[in-house]
Amino acid sequence: MTLTATGLPKDESLLVGGGTINTAFQVLQSARTLGKGTLDVEVKVPERQGDTRLVFVLRDGDAVKLNTKPFRIAP
Q1: How many domains does the chain have?
Q2: CA 65/CA 15 separation, integer angstroms
Q3: Long-range contacts of 23-31 (CB under 8 A, 24+ apart)
Q4: Residue numbers of the domain that contains 48
């Protein structure tokens, strides 16, 4: 899956994480924003049970920078 974000700080290291709602943050990979404050990163969809909704999160250390609304991925 491709995650795209704009309006982020320029040239900043971030952790990309995700999982199901109300679960612990699971780091999927690290990424770096571009000089324009944008991010385009390919991530593997985390394992989940059944038809649960997912949330992706961008973090800088302990601070959440951005998170998606919960969504489902159709099979």
Answers
A1: 1
A2: 10
A3: 25/57, 25/59, 31/58
A4: 2-67
- Would you give per-residue pLDDT tens digits along the chain (75 residues)? 899 999 998 999 999 998 888 777 789 999 999 999 999 999 988 776 677 888 899 998 777 788 888 888 776
Give domain status of residue 62, yes or no.
yes
Which residue from 38, 44, 42 is spatially nearest to 2, judged by alpha carbons? 42
- Of how many residues is the chain composed? 75
Element (H, E) at 26: strand 26-32
Give the predicted TM-score (pTM) of the model: 0.80
Assigned domain for 53 exists: yes
